[in-house]
Amino acid sequence: MIRLQRSMIEGLTGPAPSVQAVCDALQNAIELEHATIPVYLYALYSLDETKNAEIADIISSVAVEEMLHMTLSSNVLNALGGSPVIDQPDFIPTYPGPLPGGVQSDLTVNLAPFSMTQLQTFLQIEEPEDPLNFKALAVTDTITIGEFYDAISRAIGLLGDGAFVDPPRNQVGPDLMWNSIVVTDVATAQQAITTIVDQGEGTKTSPDAGVGGGYAHYYRYMQIQKGHLLVPVQGGTTPEEQYAYTGAPVPFDASGVYAVPTNPGNPPGYAAGSAQAFANDNFNYTYTSLLKALHALFNGDVSQDQFNRAIGLMMSLKGQAKAMMSGIPNPAVLAGPSFQYQPINPLIG
Amino acid sequence: MSYLNALRLHFAGQFQSNVSTVNNDPGHFDNASFKARYQHMEGNHMIPPNGWFNPQGDAAFRLLGCTVNSAWMPSGQVTGSDPVLGYIVADSDGSVPAKLVDLDPEQQLVSQIWGLKVRIADADGNTLMQGDFEPAAFMDIWDRATGSGSGDIGAGAAYQSVLCNLQWGDVSASPFLTALQQAAETGVLSIKFNVDGLNMDFTSPNFMCGRIAGTIGPATISEPRHLVIGRQFMASAAQGGNFFTPVGGINFCAAVVDSEAGCIYLDLGNALSTTAPGAGLNNLGDLTLSVSGDATPLGTIPATGTGGYAGDGWYEQTAGVVALPLTVAQLQAVAAAPLVLAGNSGITISEWSNGAFVRADAFVHRLSPGDSIEIPVYAMQWGQPLAGASLSFVLDSNQLQTNTDSFPYVSASPPVATPPTALTFDATAAPTDDCGMALLALSTSDPGTPRWFNNGTDYGIDGQVYGIRPSFTDAAMNAGPVNQWNFISFLLWSGYTPANPVTWTDVQPIFQQYANLYPVMIRFLNMADYESVKAHAGLLSLAFGLDVADPNSMPVTRDLSPAKRAAILAWLQNPLPGAVAPPARVAMAEAPESLATIAPAGAAAPPRGGKAAAAARRLILQAR
Question: Is the complex ipTM more than 0.85?
Answer without folding.
Answer: yes
